[in-house]
Amino acid sequence: MTTVRGPFIQTYSGKHFYWDDPDFHLEDIAHALGMNCRFNGHTRHFYSVAEHSLLVSLLMEELRSGDPLEGLVHDAHEAYLTDVPRPFKQQLPDWQVYEDRLEKEVRLWAGLPVEKSKGLKEADQIALFIEGWYLVADRGECFSDPLGVRPKALRMAENEGWRVINLDPKDATAAFTRRFLSLTEGRNAQRRH
User: Fold this and answer.
1) DSSP letters along the chain, please?
2) pLDDT tens figures, 78-100
């Protein structure tokens, strides 16, 4: 019998994930992100947060804009605390406090600095516009562009072959796991898989 120590969820692997004592596992993160659809599911085709994370990681590598591991795990907290669409999240400051806390805990687990890099923010925005081009009804025209990267992203989508693949959950989970293991090989971070 398991003793309950406070608020928790049961993860894919059967472990209890406690809010007050987070214990991250690659298997649970990869699986949950592979099952979660971007844009709250309002896409032409299934497109997982795991595939989005792969795209951001690859963009950071291509643009030489920082550590691709940061791109891969930037939304890993969503494996435990579901995402809220950005326009609504801005209306929920209490939610943002919880999300920020868990995001920092994941970054520490992955051996990354607590603060997001400029390169991550740019790659994440570029990914948003590439994804919008392929996945949403208005091709992302309604998305705000605070970093001014829309033209660059559309050039990458239209001329350079950057696109979404629409991996099924199982393949997205496997691809996320392979990329994580590849990017963390030889690092000294205190990570529990």
Assistant:
1) -PPP-SSEEE-TTS-EEETTB----HHHHHHHHHHSBGGGG-SSS--BHHHHHHHHHHHHHHHT-S-HHHHHHTTGGGGTS----HHHHTT-HHHHHHHHHHHHHHHHHTT--SSPPHHHHHHHHHHHHHHHHHHSTTTTTTS--TTS-HHHHHHHHHHS--------HHHHHHHHHHHHHHHHTT-------
2) 999 988 888 888 899 898 899 99
